[in-house]
Each structure stands twice: as structure tokens, then as C-alpha cells.
């Protein structure tokens, strides 16, 4: 009978893996109808095995069909709620797993259901079975860390139930899940957790004192929980416990406990974020443990049985969240038995996680320690670069993120010269140490972006490259081994992703119909966000030098604007094109006839992000399109007018974008436009509070047209609105109300625009001193700041 049960469990797990793989590799347009049919057929079944199966299928397919799932949540959540209320514990457990995996893959949409999700989890948390309680804790952990202020009405009952469970259950796996859930509640609650900090810390303090080997995993979770609690409430609220906790954390590092070291490294990363450069004294004693963890090997000898079991776990569900529900109940016995023997090499997963955590910790110390970490960079670079070709994607991804933090720390210690968009790359603008670091890290980042077979790792490399380019400008490209054509490998990698032939997309491409770009292919959100960030960052640095790269990218981007593609693809493509055209300026004007129809269609799309990017593109095309844009000005202005007059709740940001677009066009064409109507549309909506970045083109437009003699008369009536906006922005912008836990806001205008504003104010005061004085004294906000500008000039 035991053999039969074991065979049934294996078949069950394999079936779940099939569903998960299909969801990841087959477009959701094919998968989702079949899933919905399964739900409709089997969710009402009296057979608990069928209802459990439905919930597990939904759980394991959510990530692969995330966009389609998010749209169907109103239809799917009642099935999950029914599972929480089911009399059978295995069904309740599966429902909690579904909530947890939904929370990981479907936020923010899943968070809209919090008012029903949390009460159902409260009920399941009261279950008598440890397995069900543990799964409920997992669901709470996954759900609450993203919830934000909506968690506050549930904070007291959540913590009451979790702390009670922690104190009364004797099952260590449930205790560990409970501690992780408390940590997630703290992350979600932020400052609101302050009232609960001391009693919860008292519980964690007891766990931090555990020394028995079987209790060290629970101590590890408590270590993580305390770090997240401290981050949530802030330094002032937790300062009385920091010294004690740091001492306990350091004392645990020499123990033979990889899992404890993993979570302790995470704790020190949190301390670095909390203390910033003041955490510098902790780095020297911590560094030897971090370097040792980075350098250690994770391959050890296991029996064939143990090797097969570990690899099976690594395959479908590396974090174990989904597999645990499908695993046999005798896993603990297998763990003990697997320590003996040694028939072949296996992966020591605890040491693997420790290595990734150590790399992340080094990155956090560099990111938040800034210049104080710079003296340690040379010592850690060798061990870190030794992980560049590591077999596991978590390690490679951690390295990609950490390399950009090291560059930032190095640049903080020897600040580079300011860079200008479009200037020729010149490594002489960078410090010696920064050049040394780039020569060792840039090739790894670019190669990872181009060639890695893991999507999250590719995304991490793209994000790091973008951060470095924004920090150091065109000069970073002079250090690349491919100089002078150093941008080409980045564009090649982006093209491979856009054309769905990248190494990380090969499995999906093999299943696509007929090759080429599938018009409804699902895209990994992290990858596309990172690609978009990279392709909108490079033109900011390269300026007109981006032109040949934009020419290469255009044919690969246009297919994503076809009507059959999802709106998320439209937003991605039009956003990349708009940013590129904005920075190449007149060099891209010949693309106007091709791109304008797509921009106009995106500007009226149902998706807010697509509308934003479409409106921005209309403004860019109008501003830089020359005679061709002037010939098409009426349809461009009409499309922008539709967005200015829209009153939907989600339209506020788009309206600000439309004002910015109008301002850019008016700056370019001035008196050639119907300026009276255009300027009224701009001035009547100042200051812009939803997208404050659009204030800069609006101010520049009005200031320039007031300054020019030929347009001064038509712009003069809008001088009061302009001064009101200037005062508001110099006083900090925003909605004018003070933030609950912050001081005065800095001016949202960049330094260049602030300098232009100061020059304009001085010029305007010189034109008509008495009128200017009267207007300034009538300002509802920012009067002191405007007067300070004028007095500084007089002085």
C-alpha cells in the first residue's frame, strides 16, 4: 500500500509540473480557456480530490499566465474562497497555496481582494492541523508584504493570531512559516507596526537565543524577521535593540549552520539599509564570512536516491512553496537517510542559498554604505567574478545586481565629472578606481544580458547596466571592451529579446507557431520592464548618437504595435520609440509618417500606461517632426485635446502628460500654432501634481513665449498662472499638504530648470517691477522662495 501511495504521489506531482510547464511555455490565449473550462467542470464537484486538484492547477499556472489570470480574478477568487471554507483540510491547504502564489504573481490586482482574502485566511489559520496552519501562514506572508496601508484595519487581529499560533504550536515548520508571516506583516504595515514592535521583538528575542541544532532554522527566520521589523519602523524606533541583535547575529556566523548564515547575511543587508554609511564598522568583521560563502563549493556527494530527490525539488519549484504540498509526508526521514552514502555529486542547496545571500549582502553594503564601502571593493571582486558562470541563476542574478552597487560605491568615493548627453565617450572623466572596476565588471554584465538563459538574470543585468549608464553617462561606454562600437552588444541583446530568439526565450520560441514573433505571446514582465528601461536609458546618455541604434530597433518594435498584440506590448514599444525620438531630436523626424498613426492609437487606448506613452510620443513627434509635423498638427492637437478633456479617474496622469506634450510642441513652433488656445490649455492646468516632471516643459514653454517679443502679447495673460506654478514648485510641489512622516519636500525641478526659472524671474522683475511685486505678494504658496530669488539678485 505504501508503494501504491508513493506512486500516486509521484504521478500527482508530475501532473502538476506538466500544467506549470504548459502555462510557462504556451501562450495564455491557448491555456486560459482550457483552465476556465476545468474550473467550471470540477470546482463544484462533491469529490474533494477534484476540488483540490482545481486549486492546485490554478496555483501552479498563475505565474505563467499572469496577465490573463489577473483579468479573470473576479471569476476565480470565489473558487478559492470556497476552498478556504471547505470541510476537507487538504482542500483548505490547496486554497491557501493558491492565494500565496497568486500574491506572488498577480499583484497589484490580487490586492484589490484583500477585504475578503484576509478574513478567509484568519479562519484557515484557526485550523487544528499544522500543515493547514503553515500553509495559511505562507499565504499571509505572500499577500501582506505588498498590501501597504490597506493592512492597517487587519493589523491587530493578524498579529494576535500569528503570535498566538507561534507560542502554542509545537511544530517547527509551522513556527517557521509563522515567523515569516509576521515579518511580511511588518513589511506591509511599515510605520504602523511601531506599536507592536516591542511585544513581537520579545518573542523573537527568545528565538534568537536558541542554540540547539534543530532550532537553528527557526532562529534564522527570527533573525530575518527582526531585520525587517527594524526597517519597517525606522531607526529611531528600533535603536534600543540594534546593538543586542547585531551581537547575536555575529555570534551565529561561525556556527555550522548554512541556513542561519543565509538569513543572517540578509539581516546585515537590512542593517546596511537602515544605517547607511554608519554601518561601515560592521563590514570588516562581516567580510571574511561573506567572502568565504561566495568562494565555497556547493557540490557534495549524495546517494543516487538523494540526488534525484533534490534535483526534482530544484526543477519545478526551487523555493519549495508548491512542492511541499505535493511531497510525501516522510521527507524529514529521507533527509536524515540521505546524509549517508555517496554514490554521486549533488547540490548542497543550503550552501547555494547562503552564497546568493552573501552576494546580495555585499551589494546592500555597497549600495547603502556608499563611499565607506569603496576600500573593500578590490578584496571582493575576485570572489564575485568567480561566480559569473555559476550554474544557478540565483547566484548569477545576485552578482548582476551587486556589480552595479559596487560601481555606485566606487563613484561615490571618487565622484566622476558631470556628463552631458551626446558627448563623446571619454574614460578620462572617470576616476582611476572606477575605470579599474568597470574594466572588470562591464563584460560580465553585458555577456549576462546577451547570453544568459534565465529571464530574471537577464533582467537584473539590464537593470544594472541602465543604472551604471545613468550614473556615469557616455564615458562608461569608453571602458567597454567593445569600444568604439560598445553600444552594439547591448542593442544586439535587446534585439534578440524583441525578436524572441534570446537564450532565455528558446523554450517558448520552440513552441511558438510558425516562428517569428507571436502576436499574443506572453512576455515575462521583469524582462520587458528591464529591456524598456535599458532602451530608454541609453538614448538619454547618447543623444543623437543613438540614431543608428534606433534605426536597427524600429523594425523589431513595430510588430509589437499591431492591433493583435496586447496593450502591454503597445505601451512597451511606443514608450521605447518615444524616448529614443525625444533624444535624437531632428535626426528621427523622417519616422513621423510611420509612427504617428501608432502614437495616436495608443493615446486613446483603454490601458492608462499605453495612453501615457502614446501622448508622450505625440508630443515628441510634434516637437521634433519639423515641416512634416506641422502638416499633421491638427490631428496631433485633436488627439491631445481628447486627453485633456477626459474626466476618468485614471486620466489625471495622462492629462499632465498631454500638457507636457502641448508644451513641447509650443516650444518648437510658437506663433505657427493657435497659441491662444494652446497656452490657455497649458496655463489653466498648472501646477501639475500627478506627473510633476511635466512641469518643466510647461514652465519652459510659458517663460520662452513671454520672453520672445513676437509671442509676448498672447502669453502675457498667463503670467499669474506661471508665477503661481513657480511658487508652488519652488516650495516643494506635491499637493501642498505636508507629508505625515517627512520634512519639507525638495523642489521637484532639476537644477537646470531651476536655473532657468531664476533667470526668468529676474528678467520679469526688470521688465515691470511694480506689477511683478504685486503678483508675487498674491502668491498662495512659495512667496518666500520667489522673493528670495529676487533679493539674491538685487544683493
**Which range best describes the helical content: under 10%, 10-25%, 25-40%, 40-55%, 55-70% or over 70%?**
55-70%
Based on CA inertia axes, which overall geometry fits?
globular
Instruction: Tell me the Rg in angstroms.
Output: 29 Å
How many alpha or pi helices?
A: 40
Distance between the termini: 94 Å
State the secondary-structure class.
Answer: mainly alpha
**Biggest β-sheet: strands ordered side by side in the sheet:** 1-2
Uncertain segments: 316-320, 328-345, 511-515
How would you characterize the largest beta sheet? 2 strands, antiparallel
- In terms of DSSP E residues, the strand content is under 5%
Overall mean pLDDT stands at 87
Number of strand elements: 2
Q: How would you characterize this protein structure?
A:
- The structure is a single chain.
- This protein has 795 residues and is mainly alpha-helical.
- Helix content is 69%, strand content 1%.
- Strands 1-2 form a two-stranded antiparallel sheet.
- The longest helix is centred in the first third of the chain and has 24 residues, at 2-25.
Amino acid at each position: 500500500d505504501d508503494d501504491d501511495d508513493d506512486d500516486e504521489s509521484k504521478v500527482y506531482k508530475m501532473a502538476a509540473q506538466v500544467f506549470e510547464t504548459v502555462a510557462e511555455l504556451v501562450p495564455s490565449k491557448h491555456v486560459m480557456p482550457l483552465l476556465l473550462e476545468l474550473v467550471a467542470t470540477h470546482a463544484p464537484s462533491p469529490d474533494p480530490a477534484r476540488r483540490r486538484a482545481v486549486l492546485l492547477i490554478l496555483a501552479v499556472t498563475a505565474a505563467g499566465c499572469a496577465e490573463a489570470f489577473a483579468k479573470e480574478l473576479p471569476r476565480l477568487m470565489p473558487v478559492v474562497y470556497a476552498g478556504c471554507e471547505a470541510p476537507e483540510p487538504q482542500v483548505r491547504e490547496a486554497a491557501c497555496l493558491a492565494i500565496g502564489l497568486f500574491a506572488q504573481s498577480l499583484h497589484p490586482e490580487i490586492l484589490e481582494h484583500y477585504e475578503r482574502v484576509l478574513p478567509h485566511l484568519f479562519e484557515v489559520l484557526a485550523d487544528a492541523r499544522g500543515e493547514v496552519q503553515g500553509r495559511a501562514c505562507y499565504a499571509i506572508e505572500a499577500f501582506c508584504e505588498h498590501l501597504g496601508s490597506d493592512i492597517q484595519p487587519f493589523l491587530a487581529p493578524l498579529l494576535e493570531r500569528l503570535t498566538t499560533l507561534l507560542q502554542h504550536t509545537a511544530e517547527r515548520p509551522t513556527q517557521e512559516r509563522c515567523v515569516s508571516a509576521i515579518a511580511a506583516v511588518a513589511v506591509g504595515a511599515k510605520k504602523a507596526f511601531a506599536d507592536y514592535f516591542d511585544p513581537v521583538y520579545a518573542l523573537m528575542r527568545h528565538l534568537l537565543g536558541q542554540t540547539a541544532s534543530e532550532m537553528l532554522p527557526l532562529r534564522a527566520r527570527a533573525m530575518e524577521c527582526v531585520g525587517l521589523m527594524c526597517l519597517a519602523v525606522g531607526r529611531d524606533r528600533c535603536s534600543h535593540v540594534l546593538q543586542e541583535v547585531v551581537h547575536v547575529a555575529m555570534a551565529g556566523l561561525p556556527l555550522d549552520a548554512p541556513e542561519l548564515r543565509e538569513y543572517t547575511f540578509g539581516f546585515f543587508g537590512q542593517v546596511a539599509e537602515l544605517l547607511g554609511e554608519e554601518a561601515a564598522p560592521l563590514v570588516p568583521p562581516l567580510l571574511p564570512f561573506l567572502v568565504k560563502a561566495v568562494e565555497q563549493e556547493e557540490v557534495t556527494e549524495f546517494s543516487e536516491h538523494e540526488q534525484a530527490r533534490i534535483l526534482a525539488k530544484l526543477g519545478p519549484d526551487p523555493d519549495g512553496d508548491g512542492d511541499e504540498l505535493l511531497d510525501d509526508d516522510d521527507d524529514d526521514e529521507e533527509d536524515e537517510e540521505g546524509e549517508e552514502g555517496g554514490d554521486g555529486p549533488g547540490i548542497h542547496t543550503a550552501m547555494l542559498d547562503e552564497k546568493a545571500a552573501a552576494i546580495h549582502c555585499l551589494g546592500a553594503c555597497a549600495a547603502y554604505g556608499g563611499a565607506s564601502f569603496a576600500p573593500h571593493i578590490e578584496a571582493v571582486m575576485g570572489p564575485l567574478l568567480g561566480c559569473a558562470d555559476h550554474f544557478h541563476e540565483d547566484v548569477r542574478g545576485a552578482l548582476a545586481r551587486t556589480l552595479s552597487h559596487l560601481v555606485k560605491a566606487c563613484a561615490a568615493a571618487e565622484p566622476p565629472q558631470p556628463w552631458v548627453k551626446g558627448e563623446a565617450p571619454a574614460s578620462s572623466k572617470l576616476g582611476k578606481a572606477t575605470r579599474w572596476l568597470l574594466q572588470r565588471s562591464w563584460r560580465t554584465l553585458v555577456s549576462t544580458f546577451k547570453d544568459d538563459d534565465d529571464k530574471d538574470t537577464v533582467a537584473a543585468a539590464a537593470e544594472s547596466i541602465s543604472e551604471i549608464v545613468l550614473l556615469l553617462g557616455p564615458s562608461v561606454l569608453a571602458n567597454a571592451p567593445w569600444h568604439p562600437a560598445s553600444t552594439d552588444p547591448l542593442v544586439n541583446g535587446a534585439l534578440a529579446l524583441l525578436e524572441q530568439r534570446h537564450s532565455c526565450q528558446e523554450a517558448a520560441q520552440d513552441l511558438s507557431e510558425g516562428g517569428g514573433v507571436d502576436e499574443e505571446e506572453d512576455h515575462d514582465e521583469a524582462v520587458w520592464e528591464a529591456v524598456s528601461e535599458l532602451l530608454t536609458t541609453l538614448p538619454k546618455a547618447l543623444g543623437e548618437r543613438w540614431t543608428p541604434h534606433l534605426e536597427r530597433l524600429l523594425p523589431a518594435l513595430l510588430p509589437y504595435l499591431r492591433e493583435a498584440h496586447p496593450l502591454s506590448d503597445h505601451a512597451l514599444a511606443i514608450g521605447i520609440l518615444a524616448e529614443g525620438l525625444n533624444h535624437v531630436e531632428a535626426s528621427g523626424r523622417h519616422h513621423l509618417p510611420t509612427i504617428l498613426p501608432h502614437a495616436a492609437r495608443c493615446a486613446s487606448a483603454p490601458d492608462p500606461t499605453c495612453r501615457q506613452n502614446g501622448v508622450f510620443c505625440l508630443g515628441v513627434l510634434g516637437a521634433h517632426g519639423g515641416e512634416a509635423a506641422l502638416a499633421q498638427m491638427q490631428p496631433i492637437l485633436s488627439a491631445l485635446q481628447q486627453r485633456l478633456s477626459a474626466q476618468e479617474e485614471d486620466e489625471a496622469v495622462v492629462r499632465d502628460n498631454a500638457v507636457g506634450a502641448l508644451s513641447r510642441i509650443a516650444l518648437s513652433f510658437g506663433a505657427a500654432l493657435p497659441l491662444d488656445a494652446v497656452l490657455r490649455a497649458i496655463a489653466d492646468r498648472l501646477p501639475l501634481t500627478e506627473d510633476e516632471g511635466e512641469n518643466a516643459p510647461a514652465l519652459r514653454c510659458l517663460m520662452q513665449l513671454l520672453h520672445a517679443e513676437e509671442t509676448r502679447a498672447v502669453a502675457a495673460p498667463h503670467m499669474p498662472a506661471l508665477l503661481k506654478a513657480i511658487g508652488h514648485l519652488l516650495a516643494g510641489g506635491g499637493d501642498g499638504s505636508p507629508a505625515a512622516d517627512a520634512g519639507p519636500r525638495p523642489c521637484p525641478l532639476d537644477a537646470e530648470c531651476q536655473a532657468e526659472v531664476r533667470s526668468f524671474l529676474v528678467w520679469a522683475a526688470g521688465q515691470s517691477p511694480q506689477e511683478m511685486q504685486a503678483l508675487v505678494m498674491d502668491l498662495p504658496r512659495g512667496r518666500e522662495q520667489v522673493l528670495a530669488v529676487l533679493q539674491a539678485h538685487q544683493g
